[in-house]
Amino acid sequence: MTVAAFMDLALYDPVLGYYGRSPRRSGRAGDFFTSVDVGPLFGDLLEIQIAEMAGILRAAAGGRGAVDLVEAGAGNGRLSADILRSAGQRHPSLLPRLNLHLVEASAEARRAQVATLGDVGSRLVSSSASLPDSFEGILIANELLDALPVHQVVMRTEGLREVYVRAAGGGDRRADGEPRGRLRLVTVEGPVSTPDLGAYLARLGVALMPGWRAEINLRAVAWIQDAARRLRRGFIVLVDYGHEAGVLYSASHANGTLTSFASHTSAGPESETAKWLARPGEQDLTAHVDFTTLRLAGEEEGLETLAFLDQTYFVLGLVHDCLEEIQAPLALRTLMMPGGLGSTHKVLIFGKGVGRPPLRGCSFSQRVT
């Protein structure tokens, strides 16, 4: 099977999948750490940007109408709960106008959302594995796209090859009929499963050198295209770790970026062995996001790119005139830490039918490191 098919099963199978079996995987007791795990500050800061965007949409609608707040990859709803509680305190007139839609593949996580939302649960309009058919408002996705299944390819002298996963061992049997050796998963190379992989790289003008490995996230392209078509008017805010294509598909990432996380430890990308194959369904699998292709795909579907910047500068834009209000300075430093969440995580903001308004989160700097 392709690496994408393997990831789909290992992460999202409703019975055996890593995300399918648990309502929460991040935090100190989990396998990895996200901005949401810093505490409610991340949602509190996002609310500042969401309130501004809601105001822009309200003005465009002549001061009428509700605003859809859609969170994709919502998990148990912690981030949206933080946003809504902050809105109730900072912008109380906004809270009744927000219609919350939580999008989450894991049924276990969806079942936990009502309890997580608690006192702001009345704003929940829908909870589903799919985006709303049509919405007008703000779509946010924090660390969603890096966990979508990717194809892995490797360049050889004879051309582009794809990496596949297959079972090995256990074929020979002893005299009593029992298999010799333990069945294990290994990677093998073969022809690409779809011409879309070569077309993806060609469109970017990427020339992989012999021996280089790379991941191609066709699912992320389909996701942004789908989101753009369903959004009637509003904004899309994507927060994730990754790079522009010129960096992602270069010598600095010649072994690819596909890796696993377990107990806050990364196996690291490897060219010849694949530790991410171990214990399928019991560890996170992730690969860096190609923001260049995301941007191009979104723009082809009618989105306008409004900003692309490090999380550090996005946070600084939101807090630069209200630092005295921050009650958690350590959490703030964690969100902005160079080499950590601040610089590894990028913020990509699209607009549709809203022009090019100046946004507070982009007011400090639109720098990408």
Structure description:
- This protein has 369 residues and is α/β, with parallel strands linked by helices.
- It has a single domain (13-148, 214-254, 281-362), classed as Rossmann fold (3-Layer(aba) Sandwich).
- 30% of the residues lie in helices and 25% in strands.
- The chain has 11 helices and 15 strands.
- The protein has helices at residues 3-12, 41-60, 78-90, 107-117, 196-204, 218-230, 245-248, 291-300, 311-319, 329-336, 341-344, and strands at residues 67-72, 98-103, 124-128, 135-142, 151-156, 159-168, 184-190, 213-216, 231-243, 259-262, 265-266, 284-286, 289-290, 304-310, 345-352.
- The strands form 3 sheets. Strands 1, 2, 3, 4, 9, 13, 14 and 15 form an 8-stranded mixed beta sheet that branches. A 4-stranded antiparallel beta sheet has the order 7-6-5-8. Strands 11-10-12 form a 3-stranded antiparallel beta sheet.
- A hairpin with a 2-residue loop joins strand 10 and strand 11.
- The protein is globular and about 60 Å long.
- The mean pLDDT is 90.
